[in-house]
Amino acid sequence: MAGPTFSDDGGGRDLRPFVDDICARRRGRSRAAVLAQLVLRRPALGLLFTKWHFDGALLWSGLITMAAIVYLLLTMRAHKLTPARLAIAAGFYLVFAIGLVLILA
Fold first, then answer.
1. In this structure, is the dihedral angle defined by the CA atoms of residues 71, 73, 79 and 85, taken in order, positive or negative?
2. Pairwise CA distance, residues 80 & 73, whole Å
3. Containing structural domain, residue 65
């Protein structure tokens, strides 16, 4: 039977989160901060070391996503979010799909 290890190979209990938690508590950090660090560490490294190839489709998706977010934030800030306005926000998906077909064609 394998004892506690520091590896992520699944062979035993992973002590790294436990040790990180103890060190963070000694430094006065909250458990939520430790959990956030543990959850975000690997995806952040994955994003950092990914070779990104920016093309028209990626740029288009980013622009439409930002436009939809701005629309929703402004609508919510004005306290005017209704089902009809939410349906208008869903129209951004339609605009995205049409634009993507035109870009990839």
1. positive
2. 10
3. 56-104
The DSSP bridge partners found for residue 5 are 14
The average pLDDT across 13-32 equals 70
pLDDT at 9 over 60: no
- Same domain, residue pair 39 and 74: no
Give the three-state DSSP class for 5.
Answer: strand
The predicted-structure confidence for 41-85, as pLDDT tens digits, reads as follows 778 888 888 888 889 999 999 999 999 999 999 999 999 999 999
Q: Quick one: 19 and 41 in the same domain? A: yes
Q: What total of structural domains would you count in the chain?
A: 2
**3-state secondary structure (DSSP) of residue 25:** helix
Query: In 4-105, which residue ranges form alpha helices assigned H by DSSP?
Result: 16-26, 31-48, 56-77, 83-104
Residue type, 14: D
